[in-house]
Amino acid sequence: MQKNKMLTLILTASATLSFSHNTLAGGSCGTTDADCHWELVDGVLTITGNGTMNNYTWEEKYRYDGVDDWGDDIYTSLGDVSDAPWFDSKDSITSVVIGNDVKSVGNNAFWGLNAVEDVTIGNSVTSIGNEAFRGTAISQVTIPEGVTSIGDDAFEEISSLSSVNLPESLTSIGMNAFSRTSLENITIPENVTYVGRFAFADIQTLESIAILSNQANIDNSIFEYEEVRDLLNLPALTDITIPDNFSFGEVYTHNYTVKSLRALERLYDHDGEITYEEYEQLLSQAEAALANSGEFSFTISRPKSSSGVNIHCIGDMGKCAANIAAAGYEEGSYTLLQAPSRSTSTRIDLPDGSTKVIDADGKIHYEGKRIYTLKEANEVSAPTGNRVSLRYQ
Predict the structure, then answer these.
(1) What is the pTM of this model?
(2) Contact (Cβ atoms closer than 8 angstroms) between residue 222 and residue 190
(3) What local confidence, expressed as pLDDT, does residue 354 receive?
(4) How far apart are CA 261 and CA 259, in angstroms?
(5) pLDDT tier at 350, thresholds 50, 70, 90
(6) What is the rounded CA–CA span in Å between residue 174 and residue 366?
(7) Residues 6 or more apart from 60 whose CB is under 8 A from it?
(8) Mean pLDDT across the chain, nearest whole number?
């Protein structure tokens, strides 16, 4: 009889375990457990509490394997590691949920969680730390109202990221924050006072850009990278909305000095630095200078060319035109338009019964995606071809 009771208990315990959630681990991720607590259940990493998250670090580990035949040290990479307590489970974490009372997302908090495809950020978060989501596989993210700062590299190099909604509360966007992603549309809210260099750099998929902030430090450098200095020639770009103090940079110039005709020829024939037409124009000058002093110095200036981009100016059209010309863009390669007045808001009724305000660039966002484009003063069109009514406030 005793053996039967023991068998029953074992079977009951096994049955209970088979229906329980797969809770891998949990613990504190703040100064105290009440500040921040984490739990990993069935691939979902949930952060709760009413305080701030800890900051974490990561590094690439190496093993020293002696020296080679040349006497050079040999190191073997052991991969990247992080001191975030959930990092060892990175391959099994597919979703991150940050609770509504958590105040911040720590530096490197979810760095390297390459299986994470979905992120929910609670409505009490005010800051997102450096490299917080770098290396994840998310495709879209909504930054909630109340967030004021996004740190350096926070979403960098997420090639799957095609959509982000930034809140009106946002004031600061760090360096490289969204660089090398696949974003299609960007709207920088008007309360933003700082955007770090390269924040949206090297994004070849950009179709539209709306810069609603008129801070002087927000210029072409936030989109460009290394030797790329031609914002209006991004391959997919069709529309950009700018304030009238936005700088597109300077005219392309490069200074050269050569000490032989062969060196001048090399600049076009081998290096591709100058065109054949430029070489022909410079040749007679070079011959005279080389005969006189043994060297020839010259400067190449080239106009930039837009791929037919529509530039929507917020404010003074004359100032916008002057800033575009100062960057060396050829007239006729772009269309300069007056942006809709932001003092007169335009609203449309959507199919679900809700009403949305049209952005200053003439576009609105619905369910996280830009799906309606203002076509005329009295209508908008949707991808389905359905018409929705438009009215003015």
Answers:
(1) 0.72
(2) no
(3) 53
(4) 7
(5) low
(6) 26
(7) 77, 78, 79, 80, 81
(8) 80
Q: Helices 276-293 and 261-269 meet at what angle, rounded to 10? A: 160
Q: What is the pLDDT of residues 188-221, one digit of tens each?
A: 999 999 999 899 999 989 999 999 998 878 888 8
Three-state DSSP at 89 gives: helix
Residue type, 56: Y
Residue 76 CB neighbour total at 10 angstroms: 9
Question: What single string gives the DSSP state of each residue in 296-356?
Answer: EEEEEEE-B--SSEEEEEES-HHHHHHHHHHTTBPTTSEEEEEPPPSSS-EEEE-TTS-EE
pLDDT of residue 353: 53
Residue listed under structure tokens 């020639």: 233
Go through 358-369 and write b for each residue having 16 or more CB atoms within 10 A of its CB, e for each that does not.
bbbbbbbeeeee
DSSP state of 390: E
3-class DSSP state of 171: coil
Interval 2-56: pLDDT, tens: 444 443 333 333 333 333 345 568 999 998 878 899 999 999 999 999 999 999 9
Summary count for the chain: helices (H), strands (E): 4, 28
Closest CA to 230 of 244, 210, 251: 251
CA neighbor of 311 nearest in space, from 237, 236, 371, 390: 237
Which alpha helices (DSSP H) does the chain contain, by range? Answer: 2-18, 261-269, 276-293, 317-326
Sheet with 379-381, edge to edge strand ranges: 363-366, 369-376, 379-381, 387-388
Q: Spell out the domain ranges in the chain.
A: 23-232, 252-302, 346-392
- In the structure, what pLDDT confidence band is assigned to residue 383 with cuts at 50, 70 and 90? very low
Angle ∠(83,61,95) on CA atoms, nearest 5: 45
CB 94 within 8 A of CB 116: yes
Centroid of chain to Cα 130: 13
Rounded distance, CA 384 to CA 215, Å?
Answer: 38
Identity of the residue numbered 277: E
Cα–Cα dist 22/43, whole Å:
8
In angstroms, the CA 183 to CA 369 distance is 11
Q: Are 158 and 137 in contact (CB under 8 A)?
A: yes
- Under 8 Å between Cβ of 216 and 193: no
Fill in the amino acid letter for 69: D
> What is the maximal distance between C-alpha atoms in the chain?
115
> DSSP class of residue 126?
-
